[in-house]
Design goal:
- This protein is α/β, with parallel strands linked by helices.
- It folds into 2 domains: 6-44 and 290-397, Aspartate Aminotransferase, domain 1 (Alpha-Beta Complex); 47-285, Aspartate Aminotransferase, domain 2, CATH 3.40.640.10.
- Helix content is 42%, strand content 13%.
- Helix 3 (47-57) packs antiparallel against helix 11 (274-285) and helix 5 packs across helix 10 (255-268).
- The longest helix is centred in the C-terminal third of the chain and has 22 residues, at 289-310.
- The chain is globular.
């Protein structure tokens, strides 16, 4: 008899967190490591949000259990924020507040997926999606779009991957790990295809405010209203407000789905920390000036890192229009000898870069096919210049 269940033993460690943890450990040991692995803003949470949490901590009602689906005030704030930002009208009983976006992802799949259901998963994908699908008993079906497509899958590709077992499509725009953003026309076409084929949409909108060059990220049920009854939207305060550690996310969906997911959460974790929920209320009801200021810095860094990466021989990096990641192809580097080593995969190349020049990036294997590296540009301009400069020197000297 095995000590660990087959279901849990089959889960792969989060590659992004593993790379970030290794980089932080080396840095703590005094090594001059520059880490491009973490998917979190490097800015502090805005003061008005922190002050709301400080005030909330002194209120005794926040020391107690509260309703599993979330504080009524926060659910109302999410309703109003969704109308303001997405022009999508919902009611509070369509909202479930979760312990960060990851719990929302897990519960979405757990709520609608039956064993054997196939979930279409555009690749490159966030490393957590396939693990949550498999935990729910589903089968992830990768649909890959490379750099020649700007990492955007087409309706034709989705249709080719669809079978009688297809239950849902995971949709993420702006994308982690590529920063790619679907145009409104592409979003509408995908939505109409899903509606026609009775396919659920699980739409991750966590990067909705991180957009550049005039890009927009319309919510699917806004462009295809009839899709609302088979769409689950995932979101949270982590990326927009630099609140990754506060652990507040949410699900929006049909009332029966949200009620079922709430039942699951009532046994899994109950309510989210009340102090964090109070902070989230302040974030969602405040203005977006701090968000726009962070966005300006990300935009500058986006252009800088893309330019520097494209100057490295063998690197090909599209300019992303969302999130805070770049995803260069490094296929032309693989198979070349660098300091006596010949990496054949992007995982081997990432290890070589970390070992030789102490720069941490996440290999493409974490997000789909090999041949790519993901760099987060949620770090200072100086670190971007230094880190990418080290890689260029390494690759150029061979």
């Amino acid at each position: 008899m095995t000590r660990i269940s087959h279901r849990i033993a089959a889960i792969a460690e989060s590659a992004t967190l593993a790379v970030d943890a290794k980089a932080k450990a080396l840095k703590a040991a005094g090594r001059p490591v520059i880490g491009f692995g973490a998917g979190e803003p490097d800015f502090p949470t805005p003061d008005y949000i922190v002050n709301a949490a400080i005030s909330a901590a002194s209120v005794s009602s926040n020391h107690r259990y509260t309703p599993t689906p979330g504080l009524p005030e926060l659910r109302t704030a999410i309703v109003e924020k969704t109308k303001r930002d997405s022009h999508f009208e919902i009611t509070a009983d369509q909202v479930l507040v979760t312990n960060g976006g990851k719990q929302a992802v897990y519960q979405a799949f757990a709520t609608i997926v039956n064993p054997g259901d196939e979930i279409l998963l555009p690749a490159p994908y966030w490393t957590t999606y396939p693990e949550c699908i498999k935990l729910a008993g589903g089968i992830p079906v990768e649909v890959f779009a490379d750099e020649t497509q700007d990492y955007l899958v087409t309706v034709e590709q989705l249709e080719s991957a669809r079978t009688s077992k297809t239950k849902a499509l995971l949709f993420c725009s702006p994308s982690n790990p590529t920063g790619a953003v679907y145009s409104p026309a592409q979003v509408k076409a995908i939505g109409e295809w899903a509606l026609k084929n009775n396919i659920w949409i699980i739409s991750d909108e966590i990067y909705e405010h991180l957009l550049y060059d005039g890009a927009t990220a319309p919510s699917l049920p806004v462009l295809v209203p009839a899709l609302a009854d088979q769409t689950i939207i995932l979101n949270g305060v982590a990326k927009t407000y630099a609140m990754t550690g506060w652990r507040v996310g949410w699900m929006i969906g049909p009332k029966d789905v949200i009620k079922a997911a709430t039942n699951l959460q009532s046994h899994l974790s109950s309510n989210v920390s009340n102090v964090s929920q109070r902070a989230a209320i302040a974030a969602l009801t405040g203005d977006l000036s701090a968000v726009h200021k962070m966005g300006e810095a990300f935009d500058r860094r986006r252009k800088l890192i893309t330019k520097l990466l494209n100057e490295i021989p063998g690197f090909e990096c599209p300019l992303p229009t969302g999130a805070f990641y770049v995803y260069p192809s490094v296929k032309a580097v693989l198979g070349k000898t660098i300091r006596g080593k010949t990496p054949k995969t992007s995982a081997e190349l990432a290890t070589l870069i970390l070992d030789e020049v102490e720069v941490a990036a996440v290999p493409g294997e974490a997000f789909g096919p090999s041949g790519y590296l993901r760099f987060s540009y949620a770090l200072s301009d100086d670190d971007i210049v230094e880190g990418i400069g080290r890689i260029k020197k390494l690759i150029t000297e061979g």
